[in-house]
Write a structure and sequence with these properties.
This protein is rod-shaped. The chain has helices at about 1-5, 10-15, 15-40. The chain is an all-alpha fold. It has 3 helices and no strands. Helices cover about 75% and strands about 0% of the residues.
C-alpha cells in the first residue's frame, strides 16, 4: 500500500513534537490527580 510506504518513523516522531510533549504532561497531571483521589477515597 502506498500509504504505508510514505510513513517515515523519524518524521512521525518529530512532527508536532511540542504538541505531543504538552499532551504527555497533561496526561501525567490528570493521572496523578485521579490516582490521588482514588487512594484518598472519592467523595461526591
Amino acid at each position: 500500500m502506498k500509504i504505508f510506504e510514505k510513513i517515515n518513523i523519524k518524521k512521525a516522531l518529530t512532527h508536532n513534537i511540542w504538541l505531543k510533549i504538552a499532551s504527555l504532561i497533561i496526561a501525567i497531571i490528570i493521572w496523578l490527580y485521579v490516582s490521588g483521589e482514588i487512594s484518598r477515597g472519592v467523595h461526591i
